[in-house]
Amino acid sequence: MTETPQSPAPGQNNPGADSAPNLPAQPQQQPGPYGPPPGAFPPPVGGQFHQGQQPPHQGQYGQQLPAQNLPTGPVLVTIGDISVEQQRIVTPAGVMPTHGANWSAMDMSRTEEKIPAWAIVLAIIFFLLCLLGLLFLLVKERKTTGFVQVTVQYGNRTHNTHVGVSSPDQVADVLARVNYARTLCV
């Protein structure tokens, strides 16, 4: 008498076969917030690409999509997590070509000015000795806190980064780096 193999009940593994868990079907990949994933191009209207035909580098509305195979080169300037080369901009969101990219920078830092504690103590001590101690109250201490928000945009792809700053010189440096990156993107 021969036995016929029976399929296992739903949710159970077949003990005679490899014990791979029952995995749900993979969902279709949806475009992310930065557009379609690299290498994913829509097929032409009304059909598929023919064998050997390359997908066009056109976006949904005729926008030029960034080519992922741009030539690499030395990094010319780095702004936060954005690296700018001669032909491309490398961000955590992906690679964008430099030609046609738009840059913006917004200074979100603030500088506070206050009298330091040591000046107040010396003003009180020297006030009791002579009235010149009040001159210590003219001493001011400046402290800069905040960040500079840098945005690079190419087509429908956008990447923002916040660069922390602690002095007005650092703010000027970040803004100068953005201006240099703009000159590379013309």
Order of helices and strands: EEEEEEHEEEH
Query: Order of strands in the sheet with the most strands?
Result: 1-2-3-4
Largest sheet entry: 4 strands, antiparallel
Kindly name the structural category.
alpha+beta
Total beta strands? 9
Strand content: 15-25%
Helix content: 10-25%
Distance between the termini: 82 Å
Mean pLDDT: 75
Describe what this molecule looks like in 3D.
The chain is α+β, with helices and mostly antiparallel strands and 186 residues long. 16% of the residues lie in helices and 25% in strands. It contains 2 helices and 9 strands. A 4-stranded antiparallel β-sheet has the order 1-2-3-4, covered by helices on one side. A 3-stranded antiparallel β-sheet has the order 5-8-9, with helices on one face. A two-stranded antiparallel sheet has the order 6-7.
Give the SSE layout.
Layout: E1 77-79, E2 82-84, E3 88-91, E4 94-97, E5 102-107, E6 110-114, H1 117-129, E7 141-145, E8 147-154, E9 157-164, H2 168-184
Antiparallel strand pairs: 1-2, 2-3, 3-4, 5-8, 6-7, 8-9
List keywords for this structure.
2 helices; 186 residues; alpha+beta
Q: TL;DR of this structure?
A:
The protein has a 4-stranded antiparallel β-sheet, with helices on one face. A 3-stranded antiparallel β-sheet has the order 5-8-9, covered by helices on one side. A two-stranded antiparallel sheet has the order 6-7. β3 and β4 form a beta hairpin. The protein has 2 helices and 9 strands.
